[in-house]
Amino acid sequence: MPRKPSHTPESLADSALAQFWYGGYEATSMDILVKKTGVSRHGIYTDYGGKKALYLACFPRYHQHVVSPVLDPVTGSGDGMAAIVGYFGRLVEMAESIGLPGPGCFVVNASTEVAPHDPEVAAKVAEHNARLETAFSTALQREQSTRLPMPHRKALARTIMIFSNGLWTASRSTDKSETLREHAAVFLDLLEYRLK
Amino acid sequence: MPRKPSHTPESLADSALAQFWYGGYEATSMDILVKKTGVSRHGIYTDYGGKKALYLACFPRYHQHVVSPVLDPVTGSGDGMAAIVGYFGRLVEMAESIGLPGPGCFVVNASTEVAPHDPEVAAKVAEHNARLETAFSTALQREQSTRLPMPHRKALARTIMIFSNGLWTASRSTDKSETLREHAAVFLDLLEYRLK
DNA sequence: CTTGTGTCAGAATACGCGTTCCGGCAGAGT
DNA sequence: ACTCTGCCGGAACGCGTATTCTGACACAAG
């Protein structure tokens, strides 16, 4: 008897993600959300109960659609340094395909805009950064050319994570992917020089 | 005949800076501003005309109070690499003295929270980043151990700037200055290894 | 065709915040 | 002591937005 729903909670979160990502949390009103997602207020509130819950639901969607394709290969097998080089290549490709200057990284944006005043969002951000860190750490572990001591490896992985987030931030204010590629190349050159 | 004013536009901007820095632009209401600065709404509006103008006035104050003491020595004379090492040492000291986890860098925060939707703020951010970049570039120029080609030097200076901004971001989610020092040391180690 | 369920669009509500406005008063000059 | 200037505290206004509510409607089942 009921009408067939035109959306699923997942597809709603996906549409909302695009909006929050480009517009930020505060600047994205419910009116905009309704218009851009094509789902009525009623639909949004029955699916998620509020704006913030919908926002939180965007994090796993972002991970699935954006982070995983770029990051997952890093934890694969093979040369560790090559895996990290590949990561930054895919990162710039991703930024490029989104368009430059672009919205940067959804999570990095959240970490400065929302996380400081919201523990739940801060937790999502911390989780994301930890994922990056462990991925880089396992890649460094596989790197054959050097045997880094464990604490140093962890610190190095964090440094790579910090730079990765910085590169996303830079992608918001440049219109040339070549610039990003150059930044990444410089950093990777430093890294490679040290490991070999 | 008039009452002696209890504040100057500069001291008002200084107090406002502290609030915007810790609380962000959106989350800092005029009520909070009035309470924390000790200046009445009337005083704020006659001095600056509105919230955003006051916010913009905070940028030069931030530069004077925070950026200059940390950055200016970089453009001095002497060994270039040592100047950059000194910069990161002072950066971490500054973050430490503010308290950890802290509010990060006022300008980096502005770049993700406000700049995307406000050209005037974006210009202030770009100006700040350019200042960092040229400072690092002149330091690299003074570095005696290597003769970097000019384009590479500029790219390297930008990479250092990106990492510096990333480190400030990291200072918002860690409570140990030792962690920051470690991140900086790892990065500087990479840099030094490459230049020598 | 009728019925009933769940969705949709938009109005109504409640609230927060930037801005403006107004009486009261503190203090320097005479 | 008196006056007069201009600043202060706080109320008032207008706007924007998250949330709730309501009546109309679309569609599948009988």
UniProtKB/TrEMBL annotation, chains A, B:
Residues 6-66 form the HTH tetR-type domain. InterPro entries: Homeodomain-like_sf (IPR009057), HTH_TetR (IPR001647), Tet_transcr_reg_TetR-rel_C_sf (IPR036271). SUPFAM superfamilies: Homeodomain-like, Tetracyclin repressor-like, C-terminal domain. Signal peptide: none annotated. It comes from the Bacteria. Residues 29-48 bind DNA. Transmembrane segments: none annotated. GO terms for molecular function: DNA binding. Keywords: DNA-binding, Transcription, Transcription regulation. This is TetR family transcriptional regulator. The lineage of its organism: Bacteria, Pseudomonadati, Pseudomonadota, Alphaproteobacteria, Rhodobacterales.
